[in-house]
Amino acid sequence: MADRRRINPPLGPTSVPTFAPSPSAPSIAPPPHRTRQPHEIRKIFLKTGLTPSASGSAYLELEPSPLPPHHNTSLIYPPTPSTLKITCTLHGPRPLPRTIPFSPHLLLTCTVKFAPFALRHRRSYIRDTDERDLSVHVETALRGLLISERWPKSGVDICITVLEGEDDDVVGSPRTGLSEWPTMSILSGCMTVASAAIADAGIDIVDLVSGGVAAIVRQPNPPSPLDRRNVNVTTDNHTPAQIVLDPCPSEHGDVLAVCVVGYLRSRDEITEIWTRGDVDSGLLLLLSDTEGGGGGKGSAFEMLMDKAVEAAVEARRVLEAALREAAEFKLRKKG
Predict the structure, then answer these.
(1) Distance (Å, rounded) from C-alpha 314 to C-alpha 214?
(2) What is this structure's pTM?
(3) For 52-90, what is each residue's pLDDT tens digit?
(4) Alpha-carbon distance 3 to 5, whole Å?
(5) How confident is the model at residue 92 (pLDDT cuts 50, 70, 90)?
(6) Which residues have a Cβ under 8 Å from the Cβ of 121 and sit 6 or more positions away?
(7) Residue 48 φ/ψ, nearest 5 degrees
(8) Nearest to 163 by CA among 115, 129, 200
């Protein structure tokens, strides 16, 4: 029996009809290129206390990717900037229902959900495997943050909604990116915004967790002289590779490996680490020798993890500034 109370939207993406000026005009925009230095992350906007009905809330937004300086405005598919927008609400701590067994620790429940319009391909209302994986990783990262012994017989619910996610492909282009690369950047943002919401709720924590992501990528063009600080290596097809912080999937031609961490700066601990990709043994040795690993003493995995920690330290500065600003606002309001 059909559902007559709901008008289901189309499954695929829709766009307003446009008219090409001439058949010879290009219809696809070229992919954007990275203009930041490899050790530079995008600007982060973070603000807390946006949902009055919740115990704690936060909103995070990344700087969109810059468009080409002289992009063609007559394209059928004009270039669109890629960015990340995440909101988080926290409810609790509150007493557990009587049907749940006694727990001497605080029960944490984390839910990550994509908005239907978050990605280029419309998401369904039912949670899929990607959302469940993100929820498990974020919950694991936050468990090492809370002092759960101080909240017995209590529970807290964290709801994270991805309003806009990064896409790794361009509209109308034949290039089909892998869906796991944008997931890593989304996980990094989810950990940072959830930590801000927990601090906004006033829950006892040992430190602030910030997410950082680093990747080994191949650039479509050879690096410029300004990029001498990059880690340049040569793979089997003689394409230069480098390690970059805070990668945007649409800005890189090929992503070899990605690592995301949840880092506690004051305690110097990693509460969550997730790595994807395949790096062969030859690339590992070349990366170790290039950065002075002492003839293979280090590994590319450790180097990639250290770069992800550097990105987390940079995000930690924004997190501290946002919480300091929120605390000062609350003190002025009370005074």
Answers:
(1) 12
(2) 0.79
(3) 999 999 999 998 877 665 555 555 555 566 789 999 999
(4) 6
(5) confident
(6) 12, 13
(7) -110, 165
(8) 115
